[in-house]
Amino acid sequence: MNNVKGKLIILKNMKKIIFVFTLALITHASPAQKSVYNSQPERLFNQGKEMFLEGNYTGAQDILKEYISGSNDRILKEEAAYMIAVSSFRKGNENSGEILKEFLESYPETVHKHQVNFLIASNYYDKKEWQNALQWFNMADLDYLSLDEQEDYSFRLGYTQMQLGNRDEARRYFGLLSQNSRKYRDAADFYLGYIEYANGNYSTAMSRFDRLRNNPLYQEDVAFYAAQSAFFDGRIEDAIRLSDAFITRYPVSEHNTELSRILGNSYYRLGQPTRAIPYYERYLLGAEKPLRGDAYFMGLSYFETGKYNEALRMFQQAVGEPDELSQNAQLQLGQTYLRLNQKQQAQMAFEAASRHNFSPQVRETAMFNYALLAHETNFSVFSESISLFENFLQQFPNSQYTDQVNDILAETFLTTKDYQAALNAINRISNPGRRIQEAKQMVLFQLGAQEFINGNMNQAVQYFNNSVGMGNYDTKARNNAYFWRGEAYYRMGNYTSAASDFRQFTQNASPSDENYSIGWYNLGYSQFKQQQYSQAVGSFQKYISTETNRSKSEYADALNRIGDSYYFNRNFSDAERYYAQAADANPSAADYAAYQRAFVLGLQRNYQGKITALDNLMNRYPNSQYFDDALYEKSRALTMLNRENEAISVLQRLVNDFPRSPLTSQGGVQLGQLYYNIGNYQQSIQAYKNVITNFPGSDDARNALISLETVYRDINDIQSYVDYANSLPGGLRISTSKQDSLTYLAAESVYMRGNRSEAETAMNRYLQSYPNGAYNSDAHYYLGTIADEKNNKQEALSHFRRVIDAGNIKFLDNALIYTAQTEYQNGNLQQALSDYARLSNSARNATNKQIGQLGIVRTQSQLGNHHDAVRAATELLASNTLSAEIITEVRYIRGKAYLQVNEINSAIADFQFIANDTRSAYGAEAQFILADIYYKQSSYDRAEAQVKEFMQKGTPHQYWMARALIVLSDTYLAKGDEFQAKQYLESLRNNYKGTEADIQQMINARLGN
């Protein structure tokens, strides 16, 4: 015991030891028979020896060192060196042990060997280097020591053995001293009592201590051990009495911390937590760290008196190595967190307690509470609530909680976000009742919705089929399955099946259903796509009558589609009326309605009304995508009114302002015709040539060449026409044009009949016969399509490149889409970017333009051109016709790009938008990214809140949940909550089912494994 005063007494006594040694009378024979004491060196020796014996060790060292430097007497020099070494020890020099060892090395056969070994051992003893002390004590033979030295040797060796845990050896030496030594009898009795105390023999210990009660050197320690012995012996009331008496008598004793612990522990055991707390708090003031068992009792005391935050702190300190105490402390932590309404932390604690079986009863309670909280809080990020309830029933089939678990389990299937795990669990139930069947039908629907969100339409349809096929266990699930299966069919282009499902949904769903109105809208579109315009009108009108939010974009769009349907059925007056309503309903997208209304006016021969409407459109919407259409249609209306000069001016604007518009080639042909009509032949010739040059290989180019022949014939310059035509690339030669056309059209007819093999042969034959034929690029397009169907990607790419090089506007969009996507997939990103950019600029419709823009966003991101990716994404997101899936992807890419260029706030805005739907991989990753950003910004509260939001939402994308939980652990560690940080990592390691190596590496690195 390092803190025992008896040891200090021993050390004090040790300093009083007088080492007695005998110097033999040493004489030397010399020719003159002269005494050795008569020479100067010998006088120094004797003087140094006298000082040594008198205890003047400093003086002795100085004289004896001088003697050694001037003497040649080997024997006396050894004695002098011995006294010098002993003096260094007696003075307490730091290096005295080394000096003694050097003496032994210089005089290995010295008669003082055992005394020196004893002193070296004593030097280590003073330094508390017990193992070294024992080694040197064992090298000193007790029989060669004086009686005083033998007592000192026995005590010090006994104490050393006790410090090393060799209590039986220590008892042997202390027993001899107790019987035979007056000097060490009390100290030996004290340590004999201590050894009995340490061995748990408290009554034997006290019989030893009793003899020392009145000894002032030991009475404080004896009183302390008496209180401790009573406590350890289970005599709680005696322990309280003796501890109180000790603290009163010795108010500043170093033992008071331990006795405060005993008092706190004792009062808690007596069921008096209120009295226990003050003593425990006094114990905490003096203890560097409380003992785990007492931390647990302190936690219980605080808990029972309603001091839950203090209880948390204590229970956390009670958790240590895996044992029953840790298991109980974890259970109590869970209960305490519940009292503080911190349910997620409670769940973590219950989980930790349920991992061990030191106490089956504790494990049963903890596992039930863990599963219950996972169910109640929806904090079951890895579907552990289902597996926990299943495991619970397996391990505790006769539990008091069994009935409650069975009721909860059915509900749990609906609250988990890992629906596949839920379905697997349901399928393991041999005789499921109605509630389980209801849950299964909803789970099947949710699985379908998950696949739909992630773009896997075939898998989504399969799950929806299964949900619908179960019947009417859960009518809401079945109706939702009809609705979303219709959506999936629509996106797959199966409009017949889509219409059937939307019709079924609208018949079954309640008008209060959130998708009821949009179901009619979707039904209308499915019919519209099948050209069932009358039915579509009815469905869209039903949507309009049930939609309460008329500011939605779908409302104006439905009005436009009704207008389109009337237009296709040639009911122009009704079409005009609905287009006007659409323009009023949504001004931001009114340009289409305005354009269509103007077009219908023209069909009604109201050409001036058409012109006025088109002028209004161009004035109100100068950036409209229909501006080029408006110019073209205005020119046609002017022509119908015989205002040809005005029409020419409008067409010239179209050609100049929109050189890549698909309408520009048609407008160019019309412009050539108008110039011809007014007799301006040179302008007519130039207009036709512009079409031929700018749109080679197109039908308009071929029409322009035919019309050009008429102009040249009228100006009587056929040779110029022939020379021009024969100089054209692409084969618009007039000498064989008829045969060229017939050969191509025959090949095309074979393709259209679906005979791909024969069509391929015919197209190749055409290209061989007319390598520069007028339909060269058309043939390459169809050959590219055939090659792609045969999975000859490289061959298809080559053919589509020929179409692009020819600038064949008829097939240019499709060719660019194919080449861009193929180059992207092949990793040829620069070429893909070029193709996507051209598609974006030249697309003939909004859908293809969108494909080009999206391709640019993706490719710029892959190339690491982050600023360009941001610009392209922002431009694309300005469109109001994007699907939710495309918006999510583009904002994800833009958010990632913002991070790369350190525009963190902009990135956060994008990821916050995406993070709302954690069913998608983008949404799940966004949740993790946001938490990680906040953590790296040291915004620890925001990081914690973000992860907990993610946990509440849940996700089927478990990898990102695991990454988020690691961020949460790092966040707790940064906040100084090591306990919570470790608990989340332990939970993740035990519950995460993924096999990704990086997750395990991150967990192990943080747990130090």
From TrEMBL:
Keyword Ribosomal protein: no
Keywords: Repeat, Signal, TPR repeat
Domain of life: Bacteria
Keyword Signal: yes
Pfam name, any one: TPR_6
Signal peptide per UniProt: 1-34
Record Gene3D superfamilies: Tetratricopeptide repeat domain
UniProt cross-references to SMART domains, sorted A to Z: SEL1, TPR
Ranges occupied by TPR repeats: 517-550, 556-589, 665-698
InterPro entries: Sel1-like, TPR-like_helical_dom_sf, TPR_rpt, Ycf3
PANTHER family xref list: TETRATRICOPEPTIDE REPEAT PROTEIN 6, UDP-N-ACETYLGLUCOSAMINE--PEPTIDE N-ACETYLGLUCOSAMINYLTRANSFERASE SPINDLY-RELATED
Protein name per the record: Uncharacterized protein
Species of origin: Fermentimonas caenicola
Biological classification of the source: Bacteria, Pseudomonadati, Bacteroidota, Bacteroidia, Bacteroidales
